[in-house]
Design goal:
Strand content: 5-15%
Structural class: alpha/beta
Strand order of the largest sheet: 3-4-2-1-5-6
Shape: globular
Distance between the termini: 23 Å
Largest sheet: 6 strands, mixed
Number of helices: 8
Radius of gyration: 18 Å
Helix content: 25-40%
Length: 218
């Protein structure tokens, strides 16, 4: 055991994922680690503080740098936890990459949802049934629930895309900065529908690296 090497990795899994992203030096990139949780953030020379930042649920990670962009303000947009939970109510849920690709393709052919659901709703934190929680929120707003799993995939990806865009707009307001593109890593970066929904809602190009950012960052 005395000969066992111990290696200190960059830190928390989100920090590792962000370290895998080749962000522009001018700070014009939004960083998005998309998986069970969607961590939306950017690199900055100072933390985002104050009542507005607190209301927006901004966390300020340290990058470990002593000069320059020493902070990563970020917000947790619940992420594909919504889909993971919803799958439990469907017996024919996808079991491999090929089946997932087929479900995403089927969802892409559907029209845009008439109403998106609010991904910031605390009811989605850990409900007994994610599908029922989504259905209940839609019903409160007079909207119909999707008819099948492809419909839920379409709805969830579109709603997360808007959630990502809302955070980006908040960051622009709080920082006075204008962002030019979104760089995505994580399992969600392999989901073409989620990437496109994020691009559509934000009006920014999305660059997907289609890789597990935390592993690469380590």
């Amino acid at each position: 055991l005395e000969q066992t090497p111990v290696i200190a990795v960059p830190g928390h899994d989100t920090t590792c994922a962000y370290d895998a992203i080749p962000a522009a030096a001018d700070g014009s990139d939004i960083l998005l680690s998309a998986g069970t949780w969607s961590l939306v953030g950017f690199e900055n020379d100072r933390p985002l503080l104050g009542d507005d930042a607190i209301a927006a649920r901004v966390a300020n990670d340290r990058t470990g740098r002593t000069t320059g962009a020493g902070y990563r303000p970020l917000v947790n947009v619940i992420g594909l936890w919504l889909l993971e939970g919803t799958l439990k109510d469907f017996a024919s849920r996808p079991q491999n990459d090929a089946q997932w690709a087929a479900h995403i393709k089927a969802a892409e052919t559907l029209p845009a949802p008439a109403r998106l659901h609010d991904v910031t709703d605390a009811a989605f934190a850990n409900p007994a049934s994610m599908k029922a929680a989504i259905d209940a929120q839609l019903k409160r707003h007079g909207a119909r629930a999707p008819r099948d799993l492809a419909g839920y995939v379409r709805l969830i990806c579109a709603s997360l895309g808007r959630g990502h865009a809302d955070v980006i707009r908040t960051f622009e307001k709080l920082s006075g900065r204008t962002f030019r593109r979104i760089l995505m890593v994580g399992g969600g970066s392999k989901n073409r529908l989620l990437c496109q929904a994020t691009a559509d809602a934000s009006g920014l190009p999305v660059v997907s690296f289609s890789l597990e950012g935390t592993a690469v960052g380590n």
